[in-house]
BPL/LPL catalytic domain-containing protein (Cyclotella atomus), 320 residues
Amino acid sequence: MASNNEITLGRYSFRRKHAQDESLWLYHVETTISTMDEAKLLVESKFVDEKNDQCDSDNHTALDGTDMPKSFVISSTSQTNGRGTSKRKWESAQTGNALFTVGIQQSAWMDDLKLRNYGKMVPLTLLPLKVGTVVASHVQKFLLDCAKNKPIPRVTVKWPNDVLLYNDVIASHEKVAGILIESSQDWLLIGIGINVGYAPDIPSEGVDYGRNATALCKYCPRDELNKDQTWVDVATQLGRAIAFDLHSWLNHSSASFSTQIGDNILTEWKSYVDWDMELVLRDTPNREKVTLKEVLDDGRAVVQETATGLKRTLVSDYFL
């Protein structure tokens, strides 16, 4: 019989309750269409083992909404049809990158966070910025640990949902991680891809065009890893660490009550911004070049066109 914290499921390699917090559930599948799709199926099934219509009381598998996790993360070694924003293809068929989706209950943000904020709603539009900050901090920590006092590239964020590394040689910011947030039933699903073991080729034209990509392995030679580690191991550990931090922040914040939760999210995110970075409006006919001037309290971005000086306030536009 499976142990309390490790259970083989119908199509997942395993489910484990996190060793430090059993209300965070960990899932893994070797290959899938996308972890976002897997997460939606998991939510729709109410976390029931699809191979069995009855659940052993010893294995803690949910049935009819009982013993539900507060949060979960599902990772994959590879994806056959990963996607980014605006349904752009996220190339992830190779192994070695961090590919995972974190599920958080909508009530954790809409109700619990509001309660901790003394009844003041924290705009949901700040969620991408919070996630971006957590991902950026873990990317930076990995690079620092690997560098062993050698210089590392500057880690930056790009509104609203990307993490970049600044390449001194070409004087350009390259994409190392992307974030996609969707919802299903009463869950918020946060899809995250981090280039750990390889940088996918990004088209310069067409529907999937975007910014050049980079990978953590470029700055961390294989011989700097632990002897028995692979890039797949690193990617899996990185994804679970990020999921744990998001889960802990939402559900077990050490600063239980504050009237500054929204302000703190913005302050942390802005600490990773390169305000001088030139951006390109990706989905407008003229692809105007702009710079970020401010991010408002509700997460909207104020940008200024380089050519005309015209300012715009953006809600859901995306940049190159």
Observations:
- Residues 127-147 form the longest helix (21 residues).
- The chain has two domains: 6-274, 275-320.
- Residues 1-10, 51-65 have pLDDT under 50 and may be disordered.
